[in-house]
Every structure is written in structure tokens, then in C-alpha cells.
Amino acid sequence: MTETIPHQVVRKRSFLSRVVRRIILMIYRFKGWKIEGGLPKHIKKYVIAGAPHTSNWDFVFFAGATHVEKVQSNFMGKHTLFQGFMRNFMLDMGGIPVDRTKSNSAVEQVAEEFAARDELALVMAAEGTRSSDGKWKSGFYHIAQAAGVPIVPAFADNERMVIGFGEPLIPTGNYGEDLMKIAQWLLSKIPDYPRYKVLEAQAQAIIEGKNDV
To answer: Is 12 within the bounds of a domain?
Structure first.
């Protein structure tokens, strides 16, 4: 039997988390970011797959956008970050601890967290790291599929200072085809963007059986 990931905040949020949230919202508003296409109101559980991930500021702007949308966003974090005095702060900020030393995978742990909650909007940088050339990791897809929740694609246009959310996509099990739908939607928002073209090529390669990740 595995340990249940903490998912309910039944106490007052920590002072530090309240201060940090206010600062994040102040920065978001000061920078003048806008939202194009809101988050779904009729669905309470989903994975937000965002790209591109080019800066540490991405977290701030997405956190600000989800706050404006009145959604408590969540993120995955290494379980060691949730120890000691940092534990309550990380949980209050929406963190979900994942222990990769456990026998059940990170995908299974987060799927269990989806099952345990009434609402969960998990934000993931689908490219994985800022050093990506535009290829996506499949973790976001496997988590959504295992949890039985839709994927909400999202983009950040730094030139126009716009964050946009697309229509929820239910994973069909055909990763290549679903990835292509997301790539084409992203390209419709920022045409000719190089990283989105890489994603489109990746999806096509998967469809053709030349790549499986």
C-alpha cells in the first residue's frame, strides 16, 4: 500500500505562501499580460500542457493567469522539496510531491492524486526543460491518460504578452495524432514559430512510426 500524497489544505495558508502569491499576481498585472481563451469552467480536473518553456518567468505568468481564471493551479515537485519548514509552503503553492524512489511511478502517483481530489489543474511544461529544441516529453500525456482527464493545451506569446488556453482534448491513446492536433492548434496561434514546427515534425514522425517519444 502506497502513502497517499497530501492533497487537502485544511489549515490557513502559510504567511509566506500568501505573500508570494500576492507578489506573483502583482508582477503578472504589472507586466500587462492578457488571456486569450479561458480555462474550462465545466471541467474541474485536467492537465494544462504549456509551451514554450523558455524562462523561469513562465511559472509566474502561468500562475498569474490561472489566478485570474479563478483556478488553483498545481505542479509536480521532487518529494525532498516538501520537507521541513518548506513543506507547508510548497503544498500551499499548489505543489504535489512525487517520490521517484517508490515502486509506483510518478504517473501513477499523480493519477492517484487526481482520483483523490474534486478539483485539480496540473500545469506542466510539456517540453520538459528550457533547453529543449521544441520536442515534447510524453509525461503530460501519460498522466492525463492514466487519470482519465483531458489535456488543455496552452501557449505563451512573449511578444504580445498573451497566454492562451485551448479546448480540452481527451487522450485517445494515439499519441502521435493527438500531439499533431495540439501542434496545429499552437501553430494557429503563433504561426511559423520554430519550436512549434519542431513539435509538428515530432508528431508526424510518431504517426509514421519513425519515433515513439
So the answer is: no
Residue 122 grid cell: 496540473
Backbone angles phi, psi at 182, to 5 degrees: -65, -45
Establish if 213 belongs to a structural domain: no
Residue 9 lies in a domain: no
What does the pLDDT read at residue 129?
79
Does 24 or 3 have the greater pLDDT score? Answer: 24
Instruction: State the total domains in the chain.
Output: 1
Q: What is the pTM of this model?
A: 0.91
HEC string of 123-157? EEECCCCCCCCCCCCCHHHHHHHHHCCCEEEEEEE
Separation between Cα atoms, residue 123 and residue 75, nearest integer Å: 5
Residue 212 clears pLDDT 50, i.e. is over it: yes
